[in-house]
Amino acid sequence: SGFEREVVKGAKVYGYRQKPREATLDCKFPAGGEGSPAADEINTWTAVTIEFVADTGEVHMMTKAWSSEPASLDGGGEISAKFASATSTRVQ
């Protein structure tokens, strides 16, 4: 989450105008197997809590997140999904 900033200018540069941006997460789930969600199930998820570990080792949490695009199954046996929420908080 954060802000998208747009330059405001006319005869000179006046500054910027900002709009809030949602936090987003692109992720993959293994398809099939015990405990693995199906793509159509993921598409119904709203108000879920997602905790994830970034490549840097930081742990972040998105609360009240929703599936923002239809999840899809790829040929490699993984489900690609996108989520959004109002904020993402670093918890560790």
TrEMBL record:
It holds the Pfam family Tail_tube. The lineage of its organism: Bacteria, Pseudomonadati, Pseudomonadota, Gammaproteobacteria, Enterobacterales. This is Phage tail protein. It comes from Escherichia coli.
